[in-house]
Structures are given as structure tokens and as C-alpha cells.
């Protein structure tokens, strides 16, 4: 989780303390994510999928509205919908385009791993002004041959400074549990390890983005016990459909709706006020066919329809 510093930690923390405390909010922005939520929750699409069509902000906003979604979980990271160095300029522009369609920028996915990550200050202060309260952290990888507890200690040390900053700004950072991909072993991908990382942190500042798809890959049918241990730390849920060992599928074609997991009942019992993040992780366009806006709109509508069915059954 090491990044080239863009400014000293002392300067960053001092400047962040001056962050604006009042701002105009987009409709649907996740202002109160830690109080009692309503069911079903809002649904944001992880708009990484929009990058496949190179949509501009107005096009992305229009597509989100037409799909009947509440907003986006926006990638603000290198090679994301918004590049980190453009955050202060482009996040408000995107948020305004969404607001005009009565949807919102509800969540952020960032590459931030410490207070000194490049452009972290711009991203977080802009998020604060826009009323966004939850952002996902960048991934930490286990170096080959290094003891796992060493990386856990490094991650926790960096999270302590981020927790202090988040408390000042009224933000929460979340870590996603991500299953191994090739040789990439993610810190917290094992939910027992993620529990160790979370120890001692207030969930209002540092929490978990629980991803059942990746939990099934790593833990199989043992995931509920880990979910229960992590429950006090869960701030947001990432939703995708899959079948084991590790294949992500269209919503309704995998295990989510064909099992006795009661996953959505568990989420309902958490009573979170934060939006769900809907991830389109599968190959949504058949090979050999051109990816089009019309095809993606159908995928979004179909996915949202199935997700609503799961939520209604909870």
C-alpha cells in the first residue's frame, strides 16, 4: 500500500481539517449512511462498466436514469471514469450531470491507500463537498514470500492516519474483500484476515465493503460465520452473481438466487442506510458483437430487475 507522496502527512491533515462543513448535496447522495436505513436501499451501478463505451458524463447520467438506478459508484482512480488529478474539476461536473437526471453520485471507488496517496486530498475534500460519505480504498497485495502478518501491520498503520482524516471530514473508507486473481493475493481477501485488519477501528471511519461473490470463492459455504464476525464493520455491500469456483455471470444465472444463503435477509437486518453497489463483472456482450449503449441499457435494466426481486424477497 505504498504510494509516492503528493504532500506531507502533516500538511494533508492540517489542510483537511479546514474542509468545508456545509455544501449543496446531490439528490440521493449518501449523507446518513450510518443511521437506520429503509428497505430496499438505493442501488448504484459501479460505473466502471461505462468506460467500455467511453461515455461522457451526460451520457453516463442519462443511461443511469433510463436504467431506473439511483446513481453511480464512480471510479476515481488511475484509468477510472475520473482520473485522480482531475477529481476537483470533474467530480462536480459528473455530479451535476447526474443531478439533472434526478440521480446521484452515491459512492466512490478510489486508489487511495494512505493520506499521502497522490491527489487523495482533492478527491476526499471534493467528496465531502458533494455529500458523498463512503469511498473504497485501493488494494494492497501480499508480496510473494512475505509473512501475511507483516502486510496486515502495514495496512493497519496506514489506516490509523486515514481514520483520523475521515473523522475530520465525516467520511468512511471501506476495504473490499477480493478473491485471488492469478498471482495477485489481496489483503483482506480472506475474511479472517480482514477481521484482523478491522480490529479497533470505528466503522464510521474504516469499514468493510462486503462482496459475497468473492467471499464464496474464498470461503465457500463457510462465509456466513465470517459475515457474522464482520457484521459490526460492514458499511456497504457489493452485489454480483456468480458460480463457483470463480465465474461471474448475469444476474439470476448464478448462485445468488438459487441457494439458501438468506444473504439479503442478513443485509436487511444490518439496517444500513448506504446504497448497494451493483457490479457488472461478466462479459455482458457476446463475443464478436459490438458493444452498444442499447445492449448495456438492457443489461442494466435486467440486472436491476433481478436485484429488486432478491431485495423484495428478503
Structure description:
The protein is of the alpha/beta class and 314 residues long. The chain has one domain: Divalent-metal-dependent TIM barrel enzymes (TIM Barrel), CATH 3.20.20. The protein is built from ten helices and ten strands. The strands form two sheets. Strands 1-2-3-4-5-6-7-10 form an eight-stranded parallel barrel, surrounded by six helices. Strand 2, helix 3 and strand 3 form a beta-alpha-beta unit. Helix 2 packs parallel to helix 3, helix 5 crosses helix 6 and helix 6 packs parallel to helix 8. The longest helix has 22 residues. The protein is globular.
Say how many strands there are.
Answer: 10
CATH topology title: TIM Barrel
* Basic shape: globular
* Name of the top-level CATH class: Alpha Beta
Tell me what portion of residues adopts beta-strand conformation: 5-15%
Enumerate the strands of the largest sheet in spatial order, edge to edge or round the barrel. Answer: 1-2-3-4-5-6-7-10
H/E series = HEHEHEHEHEHEHHEEEHEH
**Taking Cα atoms only, what radius of gyration do you get, to the nearest Å?**
18 Å
Instruction: Indicate how many domains the architecture comprises.
Output: 1
Sequence stretches where pLDDT stays below 50 over 5 or more residues: 1-7, 12-35
Number of helices: 10
Largest sheet: 8 strands, parallel, barrel
Structural class by sheet pairing and helices: alpha/beta
CATH level-4 homologous superfamily: Divalent-metal-dependent TIM barrel enzymes
Termini distance? 37 Å
CATH architecture label name? Alpha-Beta Barrel
Q: What is the overall pLDDT average? A: 89
Question: What percentage of residues falls in helices of 4 or more residues?
Answer: 25-40%
Amino acid at each position: 500500500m505504498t504510494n509516492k507522496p503528493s504532500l506531507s502527512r502533516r500538511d494533508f491533515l492540517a489542510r483537511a481539517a479546514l474542509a468545508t462543513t456545509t455544501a449543496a448535496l446531490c439528490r440521493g447522495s449518501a449523507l446518513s449512511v450510518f443511521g437506520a436505513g429503509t428497505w430496499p436501499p438505493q442501488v448504484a451501478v459501479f460505473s466502471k462498466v461505462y468506460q467500455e463505451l467511453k461515455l461522457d458524463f451526460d451520457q453516463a447520467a442519462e443511461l443511469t436514469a433510463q436504467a431506473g438506478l439511483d446513481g453511480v459508484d464512480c471510479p476515481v482512480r488511475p484509468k477510472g471514469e475520473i482520473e485522480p488529478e482531475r477529481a476537483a474539476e470533474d467530480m462536480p461536473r459528473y455530479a451535476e450531470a447526474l443531478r439533472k437526471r434526478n440521480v446521484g453520485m452515491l459512492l466512490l471507488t478510489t486508489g487511495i491507500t494512505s493520506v499521502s496517496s497522490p491527489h487523495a486530498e482533492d478527491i476526499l475534500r471534493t467528496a465531502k463537498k458533494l455529500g458523498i460519505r463512503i469511498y473504497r480504498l485501493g488494494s494492497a497485495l501480499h508480496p510473494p514470500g512475505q509473512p501475511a502478518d507483516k502486510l496486515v501491520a502495514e495496512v493497519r498503520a496506514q489506516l490509523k492516519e486515514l481514520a483520523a482524516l475521515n473523522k475530520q471530514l465525516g467520511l468512511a473508507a471501506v476495504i473490499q474483500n477480493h478473491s485471488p486473481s492469478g498471482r495477485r493475493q489481496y489483503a483482506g481477501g480472506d475474511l479472517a484476515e480482514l477481521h484482523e485488519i478491522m480490529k479497533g477501528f470505528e466503522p464510521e471511519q474504516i469499514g468493510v465493503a462486503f462482496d459475497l461473490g468473492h467471499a464464496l470463492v474464498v470461503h465457500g459455504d463457510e462465509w456466513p460465520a465470517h459475515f457474522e464476525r464482520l457484521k459490526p464493520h460492514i458499511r456497504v455491500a457489493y452485489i454480483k452473481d456468480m458460480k463457483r469456483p470463480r465465474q461471474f455471470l448475469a444476474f439470476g444465472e448464478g448462485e445468488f438466487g438459487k441457494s439458501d444463503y438468506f444473504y439479503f435477509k442478513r443485509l436487511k437486518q444490518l439496517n444500513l442506510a448506504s446504497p448497494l453497489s451493483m457490479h457488472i463483472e461478466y462479459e455482458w456482450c457476446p463475443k464478436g458483437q459490438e458493444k452498444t449503449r442499447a445492449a448495456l441499457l438492457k443489461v442494466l435494466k435486467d440486472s436491476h430487475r433481478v436485484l429488486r426481486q432478491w431485495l423484495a424477497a428478503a
